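Is this the right way to post structure tokens for a design question? Let me know if I should format differently. Anyway, here goes:
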């Protein structure tokens, strides 16, 4: 039984590492999150390093990134001076934070690319068919990127508002007016 559990855990950690890599982060960040997520309690840096067979220095650097992304949080243990960490159990919170960060980075880059292209066309000048076509396409992309950015920002805001509303007004197990009231 233990052998199969170890295989499941290893597969999960590998998957989290690949996911982190896909999103542009170090695989070790994903491994750390995966390890902590499957723990019923907290782990020290030393324990994380030993479990993942990665240097303590590497773990120290990547745990900071996991904290910054909201994937892990430092916890205090009474009477112990070591740093301990737990995974953030709220997956939506992690996804929102990563999406917000990636959105800003990627959309800013895309908008700068389009703006640079439009400025380049102005420097080229002229009104040839090719210049008009390129200007039209870059303007279309600019409108699309601004719209997509606004939609994603709106969705992220709605999720934030929803979270605040749920915390302010906990959902009742049964709503008034529903069948059975």
């Amino acid at each position: 039984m233990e052998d199969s559990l170890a295989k499941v855990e290893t597969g999960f950690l590998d998957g989290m590492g690949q996911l982190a890599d896909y999103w542009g982060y170090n695989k070790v960040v994903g491994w750390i999150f995966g390890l902590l997520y499957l723990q019923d309690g907290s782990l020290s840096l030393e324990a994380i390093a030993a479990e993942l067979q990665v240097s303590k220095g590497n773990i120290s650097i990547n745990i900071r990134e996991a904290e910054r992304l909201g994937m892990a949080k430092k916890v205090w243990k009474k009477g112990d001076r070591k740093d301990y960490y737990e995974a953030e159990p709220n997956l939506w919170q992690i996804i929102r934070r990563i999406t917000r960060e990636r959105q800003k980075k990627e959309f800013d880059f895309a908008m700068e690319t389009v703006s640079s292209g439009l400025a380049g066309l102005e420097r080229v000048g002229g009104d040839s068919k090719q210049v008009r076509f390129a200007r039209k396409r870059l303007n279309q992309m600019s409108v699309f990127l601004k719209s997509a950015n606004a939609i994603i920002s709106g969705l992220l805001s709605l999720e934030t508002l929803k979270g605040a509303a749920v915390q302010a007004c906990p959902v009742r197990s049964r709503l008034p007016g529903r069948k059975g009231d």
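Format looks fine. Someone answered above. Worth noting: Residues 163 and 169 are 10 Å apart (CA to CA). The longest helix spans residues 129-168.
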